[in-house]
Structures are given as C-alpha cells and as structure tokens.
Amino acid sequence: MNNKVTLNIVRFVVLLIAQVTICSNINLFGYVNPFIYIIFILIYPVKTNRMLFLLLAFNLGLLVDMFLDSGGVHAASSVLLAFARPVFLKNAYGTLYDHQTLKFGNSEIGALITYISTAILFHHFAVFNLEIFNISQILLILKKTLFSSIFTIILSFLLILLFKTRK
Hints:
The protein has helices at residues 3-21, 39-43, 50-68, 73-93, 95-98, 109-132, 138-162. It is mainly α.
C-alpha cells in the first residue's frame, strides 16, 4: 500500500476518534464546539480523484453524525466543504492551485491561515445553520459560528503545524 494512502487512512481514523471522544465533549460557554475532524478535508491532497474525495468527506461526516446522533448535519456540511474547497484554495493560493503544484507542508503561512480560516467559517456556518434551521435564530447561528470557528481555527492550525511533514 502506498505511504500517502496509509497516512490518509491514519488521519481519517485519528481525527474521527479525537472528534467523538475529546472534542465532542467540549462545550465552552454554550457556544464553543470545536470540529477538528474537518482537518482531514482541509489537508487532503489536491491531486486526487474528486469523487473519492467527496465520498470520503461524506463518510467522515456520516460517522461523526452517527457517533454524535446529529441527524446528517455533519455529513451535509462535510460534503459542502469538500465541494467548495477548490474555491477556498484558489482564493488563498491562486496560481499554485491553478497549476496543481500545491503542497500544504511547503505552503506559506499567510495563505494557509487564509485558507483554513475561510473554510472553517464556511463549514461552521453550514453546520449551525442546519442544526438550528430557524432564520429567526440568525444571531445565535452567527454567534455559535464565530466562537466555534475561532477555537477550531486555533486548534486546527496548531495540529497542522505540529504534524506537518518534515522535508
């Protein structure tokens, strides 16, 4: 088996386990719920089969939904993030993404922060919008999105930097 395939399988399993055992039990101030499982979607290799990527994102979200009993909210949000990921990559990396030469381990820090931040805000807005599903609660949706996103961005960035592959 290819080394990159093994690495992605390990990432998938470790992030899923960390999400359902640790992060799902964090609920700071009633608004802060980190969703670190989306790191898998964020740093999945760019040069891969898109249908396989969407299927993996769906399965990851579905497994999180099964463990958290959240009724498909994470599956829908994960697929939405995976589908919209090229927009965030192009916004943050520009020509590097256009030429398919992007490697997250070698990318500059500013572009990585832009990419992670916008993608996480998008994902969290989708999660909380589907979870609450009431337009009269838009302030609650925005508040949960903002605070959870800030915490998830910090955790995600630290985890990505901590486990970044060395040259």
